[in-house]
């Protein structure tokens, strides 16, 4: 900008002769210098205005970036809160589901059969499932698996025709522990036995019933041999 003003001034001074220059200086020197001073002042003001405008633009850009950052932060917080709330809701639903546990099953769906006598204790698979809330009982294996830590109540029954040789009974088993046995033996007629137990189970503990060796279990549409259980309360 300074070069442009100096060059303009040089052109003005160089376009007149020495005499003319002297005459001009004598005629209107004040007008030229006043015009130059006014031009210089205008250029200085313009430069200052441009600098101020640039600063304002930079400040506006900074404010926009700051606002954008705040909005992104707020959106992130809202998304995190929504995800956390969803997780809590899902957790509560899952807790409610696993706290609803109950099942009842018998040996056969239809027909009749007599199991035993067998040479060793044998896990019974109760195929006819009337109730399985929470799906903790597996009708393919005969095993109940605790979905939540808590106190559970179990009941198992046995029935068979007495022959004066073999009894009818079996064990309630927790994992590999034989807990309680239900047993009955008669020389004739139909015999039944049942027992119940409350067990403290951890998540993943298994409970099932084993027919005792050399014992009988008769099954038909009357469903004499059953296995039931339900969650009393979680712990």
UniProtKB/TrEMBL annotation:
Taking the first listed entry, what is the main subcellular location of this protein, grouped into a coarse class?
A: secreted
**One of the record's GO cellular component terms:** extracellular region
**Annotated signal peptide:** 1-18
Q: State one Pfam family annotation.
A: C1q
- Enumerate the UniProt keywords alphabetically: Coiled coil, Secreted, Signal
Q: Which residues form the C1q domain?
A: 96-235
- Reading the lineage from the top rank, the first entry is Eukaryota
User: Where located?
Assistant: Secreted
Q: Which InterPro entries match?
A: C1q_dom, Cerebellin_Synaptic_Org, Tumour_necrosis_fac-like_dom
Coiled-coil residues: 36-96
* Name this protein carries in UniProt: Complement C1q-like protein 4
- The species this protein was found in: Sander lucioperca (Pike-perch)
């Amino acid at each position: 900008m300074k070069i442009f003003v100096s060059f303009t001034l040089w052109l003005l001074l160089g376009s007149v002769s020495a005499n003319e220059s002297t005459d001009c200086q004598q005629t209107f020197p004040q007008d030229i210098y006043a015009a130059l001073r006014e031009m210089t002042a205008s250029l200085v003001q313009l430069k200052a205005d441009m600098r101020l405008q640039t600063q304002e633009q930079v400040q506006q850009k900074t404010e926009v970036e700051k606002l954008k950052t705040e909005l992104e932060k707020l959106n992130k917080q809202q998304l995190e809160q929504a995800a956390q709330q969803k997780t809590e809701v899902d957790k509560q639903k899952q807790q409610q589901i696993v706290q609803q546990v109950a099942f009842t099953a018998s040996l056969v769906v239809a027909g009749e059969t007599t199991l035993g006598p067998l040479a060793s204790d044998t896990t019974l698979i109760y195929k006819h499932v009337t109730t399985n809330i929470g799906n903790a009982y597996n009708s393919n294996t005969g095993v109940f698996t605790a979905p939540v830590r808590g106190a559970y109540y179990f009941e198992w029954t046995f029935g068979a025709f007495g022959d004066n040789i073999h009894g009818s009974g079996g064990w309630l088993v927790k994992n590999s522990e034989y807990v309680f046995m239900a047993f009955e033996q008669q020389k004739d007629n139909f015999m039944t036995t049942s027992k119940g137990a409350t067990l403290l189970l951890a998540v993943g503990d298994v409970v099932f019933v084993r027919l005792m060796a050399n014992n009988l279990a008769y099954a038909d549409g009357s469903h004499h041999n059953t296995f039931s259980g339900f969650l009393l309360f979680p712990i």
